């Protein structure tokens, strides 16, 4: 098949050690390195721009959070407590994904939360099932969609029918919906069809059919930022820096190497693989008998919370342990809601909230362990200020 002019000019993926602290065998990054760009901004400034509609959240980066010694200790405790359970969920979602792609999957994780999960799934496939599945990671941006250049690269190098997209968890299901819409658009514009099933480790929002668990428990890789994600930032889509036919971007924080636990996290979970095969087989068998049709209970809960708290924007309600952690690390948090019986399981969330002076409300009937609420009204304040300044 003759390469089209667009295919011929596609960029090449990045790999460690040149980009990211993961081994090149673990993942190839369908991203470009924005190491020289000044993208970090204070949370308050970013939040005003996002809520006012002046900028998409992916046009800049939050200042990278460096954990305190107390917080790092909570991370290690969480990994020790949930490592085996995590390994079971990895095996279940990996085996279901392998079956969904006829035994020969191409794992494509959604950066950044999906990347360590995609690596774990690749390692399970290779070490336990003897399947050497390629693994890439690419960008998806709410309100923008999937990186179209990355999709073209995948279509040029692999059978689209073998590709399965991977993420860490679902919250209310916004990314699952974004994925479906982006792939439908790509089929329309490029004539290439990818399956829109999203494989996730945890699906507390009941948004996908391929998942390792629907429990909303702490995934230790959600506790930290780049230091558990290959020292890579979350992805950036900024047209000042990214041209047509270029990948979305990210930064490689080499200066944080001394705090990096990315490989140690993977090795800790993989260490449980030999002892969880029976549990994984039971989980896969149970999945065959379950009705896994998405019910979107997470989305419904978020709509209810948005109304009850007078927020008026579901994008400011972030359900689940992983999403609540992100709110506290990256955004301007307002409140954290915690389910009464989950208080002991979200110690790291409570610590972060305490450190940032964020109110905590214990709620008896949450469908999630916790929910993070972003402070509303910042965009309106910014719009008023901007208008006044312009008039002056």
Descriptive account of the structure:
By secondary structure, the chain is α/β, with parallel strands linked by helices. It folds into 2 domains: 5-289, no CATH class; 297-383, 2-Layer Sandwich (60s Ribosomal Protein L30, Chain: A). It is 40% helix and 16% strand. It contains 12 helices and 15 strands. Helix 3 crosses helix 4 and helix 3 (69-100) crosses helix 8 (277-289). The radius of gyration is 20 Å and the shape is globular. The model is unreliable at 1-5 and 381-392 (pLDDT under 50).
In short:
This protein has 392 residues and is of the alpha/beta class.
Mean of all residue-level pLDDT scores: 89
Low-confidence runs of at least 5 consecutive residues: 1-5, 381-392
- Report the principal-axis shape: globular
- Secondary structure: helix percent: 25-40%
Number of strands: 15
**First-last Cα distance:** 61 Å
Which radius of gyration do the C-alpha atoms yield? 20 Å
Largest sheet: 7 strands, mixed
* Structural class category: alpha/beta
Number of helical elements: 12
